[in-house]
Amino acid sequence: MTTPETPGAPGDPAAGGGRGPAEAPPEPRQLPELIRTKRDGGRLTEADIGGFVRAVVDRSAQDAQIGAMLMAIRLQGMDLEETSALTQALAKSGQQLQWPEAWHQQLVDKHSTGGVGDKISLVLAPALAACGCKVPMISGRGLGHTGGTLDKLESIPGFSVLQSPEQMQALLEQVGCCIVGQSEQLVPADGILYAVRDVTATVDSLPLITASILSKKAVEGLSALVVDVKFGEAAVFPSQEQARELARALVGVGAGLGIRVAAALTAMDNPLGRTVGHTLEVEEALLCLDGVGPPDLRDLVTRLGGALLWLSGQAEAQAEGAARVAAALDDGSARDRFERMLAGQGVDAGLARALCAGTPAQRRQLLPCAQHQEELCSPADGTVERIRALVLALVLHELGAGRSRAGQPLRHGVGAELLVTVGQKLRRGTPWLRVHLDRPALGAPQRRALQGALVLSGREPFTAPSPFAELVLPPPATH
Question: For burial by CB atoms within 10 Å, which of 86, 277, 378, 399 has the most?
């Protein structure tokens, strides 16, 4: 296990690095001083940032100090050098993953900044494995109102997100992909900061997001990474311009780490697909792996996968890569990899088989269900202009699908199914939403909020546009 370097103590002959009599290194600055520096808009050095991260990992930093530093960074920001230093310090806080040299070009991954109904990773990782890639995906839990990939997978009985580096290597050899959490060995500092960000209103900080994403990816030894940067009402960043700023930071910091990073900007005003909630999203991911499922989900899976195959030199063009990913969805090979990943990560082989081979109705019997369902009907005639994903997510969060504090248990069966699509003509009284909940009925304020999520217009029906907006690419590779 590699650990961050620690400055030599005064008088330590090793501290001079073999360059003759050296001055003793400066005493590391104390945490309150570092917090004050950033609070007042100052710049933190690489040593300052390394000291803060070490204090997080060895638990000498109090929770209040971690929260204060995160808030100072959220309010004052960090420049590219500080962000790079934070990324590297987080990455070095634990073990670096080592893979066979022959795998390098095949090692790819994808990350999302978080959205509502975003189950892309569940589909894309096995689809890329079916295309010959190795996908060592270190993922996260729900953050703010957005659902976490790990939480969704844990709704499948037996699924274990804790896998040692040795187990990850075996999964990559036998399956081609794994989706795991941040163990204490892998990026432990980010695991701690991630949980604190969720409960201190510091989720939407550009440097913290950049460092969190890329530190997890830096330890994976990737050749290429695609980041799905969401923008819109239900995303971390409301505007496409803010999302582009994060995309450029990710591409720039990634290049400094030796990873070819591309960032896709995708709209997150409406939920992705037609379901929100852990179990329901697993069911919808399986539909996509059947070669069907919602067109917006399939479109993003194939686009992001195509970009990755091209970036890593495994396809001549993005379109060729996208076609290969689509073929893996249609011929069942991606679903086969998903089944093997489930069995490899603790799910009973019979259950994994039944889930992947079953009908939608059979699958529902195998996964945790909410105790009650309630349908909402359209209050008027009109065309569905928008379904406000944020409103939907906040109500589901309240019903137990999200966390208000780190470590809080989730209700995996709680969620919502959209019974209509954007662009569709709707008549008054037609059911448009089915809510799955663990209480007998929605409260009046919740029902009112959800009805406000349905935005109708008087225009003619239309085909909903793809959420994909643009792809920010890394500088051309130099050989």
Answer: 277
Q: Which residues of 359-376 are buried (b: 16+ CB within 10 A; e: fewer)?
A: eeeebeebbebbeeebeb
Which DSSP string corresponds to 362-377?
Answer: HHHHHS---SEEEEEE
The sign of the CA dihedral 309, 311, 315, 318 is positive
CA-closest candidate to residue 323, choices 355, 346, 301 = 301
**Measured CA angle at 300 (ends 295, 304), to 5 deg:** 150
Rounded CA separation 233/104 (Å): 38
Q: Could you tell me whether strands 275-276 and 382-387 are parallel, antiparallel, or unpaired per DSSP bridges?
A: unpaired
Residue recorded with tokens 């209480």 = 439
Cα–Cα distance measured from residue 124 to residue 177, given in angstroms and rounded to the nearest whole number: 10
Token output for 321: 């890569």
What is the per-residue pLDDT across 79-126, written as a single tens digit (0 to 9) for each? 989 999 999 999 999 988 999 999 999 999 999 988 999 999 999 999
3-state secondary structure of 348: coil
Report the range of poorest mean pLDDT among 2-6, 55-59, 322-326, 372-376.
Answer: 2-6
DSSP string, 32-96: HHHHHHHHTT----HHHHHHHHHHHHTT-S-HHHHHHHHHHHHHH---HHHHHHHHHHHHTTSPP
The SS3 of residue 345 is coil
Q: Report which residue type is found at 158.
A: G
pTM of the predicted structure, to 2 decimals: 0.86
